[in-house]
Structures
1.
Amino acid sequence: MCGITGLLTAGEPRGEALGSAIERMATALKHRGPDDAGIWSTESAGHAVGFGFRRLAIIDLSEQGHQPMQSAGGRFTMVFNGEVYNFLPLRRELESGGARFRGHSDSEVMLAAFERWGVEAAVRRFLGMFAIAVWDRDEQALHLVRDRLGKKPLFVYSRPGFLSFGSELKALVAGPQFDRALDRDALVSYLRYLYVPAPQSIYQHVRKLEPGHLLTITDITRPLPRSRPYWSLEQVANEGLAHPFTGSVTDAVDELERLLLDAVALRLQSDVPLGALLSGGIDSSTVVALMRARATGAVKTYTIGFDVAEHDESPHAAAVARHLGTEHTALHLSGADALAVVPRLPEMFDEPFADPSQIPTFLVCQLARRDVTVALSGDGGDELFSGYNRYSHGPRIIGQALRIPRPARRLLATAIQAVSANRWDRLYGALESVLPGGAQVRLAGTKVSKIGRLFAAEGAPQMYRSLMSAWEQPADLVTDGVEGSGVLDRVLAARAPTGLLERMMLADQIGYLSDDLLAKVDRASMAVSLEARVPILDHRVVEFSWRLPRAWKLCDGVGKWLLRQVLYRYIPRDLVDRPKVGFSVPIDTWLLGPLRSWAEDLLAPERLGVEGVLRPEPITRAWRRFQGGDGSLALGLWAVLMLQAWQRRWVAQAV
């Protein structure tokens, strides 16, 4: 795991200035790679190209793993962030064809693969997580590549005659010719989803390379070409549904277990200490159970607990760890410990990001980094195997809502939204004792408020989008901001897949998974120089999941059914079968308590209007309603606060 950066220019900088610029960009990524650094550049009459690298040494700790690295024949020069887990069989195949290697890193194997098969053909054979920049001397071409699921980030800044790239935006900001003009349309999307969806970024002239894409630049004086997919989730989904798994349920459990065991085993390759993040839920427990089955030594696991019982899963994690016999470390934190992370968030997430689980994710990564350099994570099970509550309830509620005539639905929406989330909570609390067990839910008021917003929407795509929205009309908050049609809208409105549930899951896998969940894991882990590996999101597991019938993912309202069957082979059901909690923090309580003065400062009308980006009036009204008891507004206000804090760090300080 590392930080990569570089530039390609038809003009300046050149000579010593070129090397200085690349070194400055790479230094901005030191936290991603504290073990080693390197730069490389070459110039011609028509252009100059340079790469910068910061190394977190994982495989081949010797100098033979140093980057930037050149291929044996000298044609390709590469910087690479991530891991290619199947490099050993690739190496054996290349050696059988005459290739010779100096060290034992995956980077050297990748370069030999480029020489043997070409860049795109080689990348199709890589199994892992990666962001790659490779210069082809013979073709005078720069290739930028991102892994299939988007586990590793890659940002690209482009202006006429100049391009720079980097693992994080802070590397581009530190480089030459950077224009900090904001993309206000991207800002609208951020306020809806709590993240900026790819390919947009917060800056007008920066784009995220999309997952599974390759971008090739042969003439820097021409407009930036479109990237091209070498792997497509939409194609995988439609092909999987068209060619479903034909074996029995037992066959499917066997196959999923086989795929996951192999995915975990590959991710145990490391020349440095390795552990796992364990929440005690289905996904992380499955990963740790399979680690115990494949590891040759002790397995170290890490979890954090909070002093608010509603958000504390540490007792469950401890029970799973005891059963599996791991070397378990748990750290119990107070609200003050979590709050202390808030001032660090704008530096850590150098693009506005407002998923509150960023805080506990950072804290558990920080805990693990005390002992290990690599940690396996259980992310991805919900998206692949229908684990979210919205998958079990959303299609049914949307289907029922669409059967209600539009005028009547609007009246219902108005009536529901007229009651605050806190009042719905109190009403539910009064009735909870007489409700059957299946009707008992967490955060009832917030969920009822979401249903009210859903009823107000026009059709199925808009209804699902409302479930995913922090602000229902985010364009009202941004001066000159326009909301375009994004991945979620496009996938939900498409004719294939035919089922609404499948379209919901596909939209989440393309957008939310890479732009929220995986971005959060990458930044939080890299902030403490920890490599996070995600075996459930091995692309072979993803492809298999799309071949499974719906009933094997979501069975009688229980999500992740098939994944659970794998886990039950290792852990008693009663250790893991419980309502889903989620890895988050009590943002609403904090904003009304210890963070109130900080929030009031950033949400003051004069502060909101200082950059001319936000319209203060709707935000001020929402803040008053929130203080009056409408807890459903907490996430939307958190998004504004994270934007304000980000602007204070990355915009105001640049003036």
2.
Amino acid sequence: MSDVHRISNKAEGADFSWGPITAALANFRDRLRLLWVFVPAMLLLTLAYYFLSPNIYMATAVIGPPGTTTVQSLTVGAGSDSVASSVVGAATRRLLGGGAPAGDSFQEYLQILQSVRLAQHVADNGQILPVIFASQWDAERKEWKRGGALRQIKNGIKRALNMRVKDQPDVDDVVEFLNRDMGVTAIMASGSTVLPVATPYYRVSISGTDPARARIILEAILRASDDLIRQEQSRDVSARLNFLRNEMPSITLADQRQIMISMLSSQEQMRMVLAADRWFAHTLVDPPYASSIPTSPKGILFFVAIGIVFGLAVWLLAVGGTIAVPAVGPSLAKIENTFFGLR
């Protein structure tokens, strides 16, 4: 075989081996340039969302069961072995409605948070409601905003159709707010145990666009929930005192009279505890605090990463679509021609 034939065969072999690979590399290079279109586009979209989204702040507080109080000491019978003391302790526990009033009060307190009962109390309170719905409150005129012409027309149509029209936020709006922006979570003990151990403490949080307003709302809700239980207990104590005072004149036996006097004294002490200006149904372990660092949206680096990932995903779908969907090919060709002049 001549040298010319050998060179010709080598050339044909080279063309046969490297031609498709070279074409594939060239095609991949062209498609790779599209990456500089999709990634910046997705990055701009995510950054626009980041800068246009309002900052959300969170106010938090840690609460726990109330400590040892006069109420608890009244229910143990003073620790003596006398029959009268035992009778007094049992009778007092019966009047108080249970053997562990402090624990029961704290459980009731947790149930009241985010309850319709609390929402109704907040809706009837003229001081808390304007703080929660500050955007609907006119602070200068001290009244609720009536809205623009569009809202007036909408309300007029509702009245014509005998539909309900709300001039101010009501209990349903407060319930929606509590379910959306308020959280109550148990605090788990940190340790080396496999299963998390719950502590008697809970973290209560309120989210909002203004950290100072979120803290004020959280303080008001904690106070309102405690006041609800305090008012209920006060009514019960007043009823017990009236009952004991009415029954006292009819008691003639010395032992029974002594028991009644002890029970009356315990209820008087209970009323003093309720009248004291302090937390009753819970202990404020960590007072409400709102950080100036927003909890949402996340840091800008997070959105940069999301934009890059989305850009890569769209690019992969677009490049893969040229194989699976023939109609995508001309569209990509137009993009390439527009940005890079490839075609």
3.
Amino acid sequence: MNADDPGVTVWLDAAAEEGLHVTAVHDSDFAAHNSAYAGMILPDAVHRQADAALVAAVEKYVSAGGNLMLVYDAGTLDARGLYPLAKSRFSNLAGVDFAFYTTLRDNTIQRAPVLGSAAILDALQVPPGKAVPYFDSLAGIAPDLTPLTPAEGPFYTIDTYYYGHVPYASFVNRGKYDGDILLRSIPGLVAGYRRSGQGSVLYVNLALGSLARRTDALLLHGFLHYFGVRSGLPTLASVPDGTGGLVLNWHLDSNAALKPMETLKAIGFYDQGPFSYHLTAGPDRDTAGDHLGLDVPHNQRIQEWIKFLLARGNTIGDHGGWIHNYFGAHLTEEDKSFELYLKLNTQALEAVTGKPIVEYSAPVGNHPKWVTQWLEEHGFLAYYFTGNTGVGPTKSYRDGERSDHTIWSFPILTLGKAASLEDLHQAGVGDADVSRWLVGVTDFAARHRVCRLVYAHPPGAEFFSNALRVWLEKTADLQKQNRFRWYTMTRAAEFLNDRQQVKWTVSIGKDGAWILEAQHPSDLAHEAWFLPRNVFAKPVIQAGAATVSSDGERWIVVAGEGKTLRFTASRVSTRNTD
């Protein structure tokens, strides 16, 4: 298989975004040099076939101390492309028997929601609101595993925008599992981590790569992160200085936003930030001539708001094309005549701001692939996205192919099936629940040291003014502790583009200490690396400028100005973490 095949690149892209060194390796290279790898992934979809020699090499690698991530249908077919008669040859490593195609046929794979504890879903970086309590019956869930009882709960499952609980496909499996059960479902074990020989196996019974290629990349990212942590590996931070935060993306789609903008001032929003404000600039909202739009070229009031927001460091972006509801309702993948509306919107905002417009959000979430191409051609850096919910800024894949090349998509955060404040109000969600969610996602971003996006419309603020005040108190407190930042899409995207130019390697010195060396063509400043504290002693800077601190869970090495950095870290543990 070619290294540029989307089935391969989706893994490499996600790993790079998670700050991990992952490379594609052919079977023959692995068989010859497997002792050189800190961990190995057998991905879904791209490696269904495996001959007996590869199966034996993988078993030997794990037995000798290797870390394996075994995913879904990897190696379920033999060299001839046929299912083995009884079960997968990797069943012993997985810890359960699976892939009973010869006996179950069309029932070999089944769909159902997955369940796990709040702590496990958090470890997989599933944010609050995406992870939701599961109140349905527990009967029939993974009958061969330790039975679940309501007294152990609450159990959590994964929701998606608009549709609710996600029914994930997984292999029916059987057997008593002797490791840590991470996720389970009606078909059986969905994910587990166990020791095997001197090594370990993370078995993930989900089509992670295939899901990510169809705008559900959350668990691909989550399990890559989990595998890196359990394997005790250094990671490159995805946020400046390793400080987590949120992007707050306001959508102003009509003149109905103007009065609530005053409400936001009373709540105190303009005292924090910066935020990303996206405007639909035309004079109409639903149809041409209704005069319900912002009319940016002729409305002095909105022009003053734009200047007010810019003066406080916020960014102004496009919210679709000129007539919000008409554009969102009629835009298609085939009809590119709507490019005119994109141009009108961009030109109107640039005329007022005097700056290039480089952020975008799609009205009603309608974002055909050609729009992404148009944005890239016109120098945009980022867009909000209703796919891949719960993930940080990413290079999205759609219909099996990578759709983002020079631009970053910013998936939204959700609370169950809803996302914006108006959605939550219409769904009957109360002020206290919205407050817990907003505080929860803030704490999530700060603890995990990642960036996520929340979006809203100013009119929604009038439904949840108390929740927003509590939220601002939380963010202000964390900012004082230097544990949280507000990011605009532009700032986050610019950092990620700069981060892509970082070249770093890890080697092991004669004394057994790990040596990390990094280079950047202009400046490493604000790049950061995380090293698990239960694996490494405090890093020692050997060359270049950097500071070393700890949050109790990890060492944080933040680079100062300069093109090169070198530091060492001795291992306090020679085995992967348990």
4.
Amino acid sequence: MQFLAFFIGTLCSNLTTGYVVAYAVLLLGIVVEFILSNPYVIFIFYISDAPTWWYVFRKFLELYPAYSYSKIFADITMKSGGHYELMEGRWVKGPGYKYEDLDSHFRGMFPTTEITFDVTFDGILCEIE
């Protein structure tokens, strides 16, 4: 992220351009966060039989801090809170999120295809770096 800040600072020749770029990045972040606030949208990124370009796109998104936070949010809410189960067509109470779940893979079905979430701890480490 620091590299991106220095890169934008190099490209912006005056203060007005810097403000425009900063607001554009802020608005983009709000839109992306609005889209990623639904855990089912994040499920789409973890479909097992997705094409290679989809995997590359997901890895690119993992560089964006808001995506990592949304992924952590989805992991915790799908296990600890109640959620709407598409396959069963009803609300299901989660089993609870424990300390051991930080280092465990989440596997499941998303309508007809298998999904495997990365470990939650990977998202936390990505934010620390």
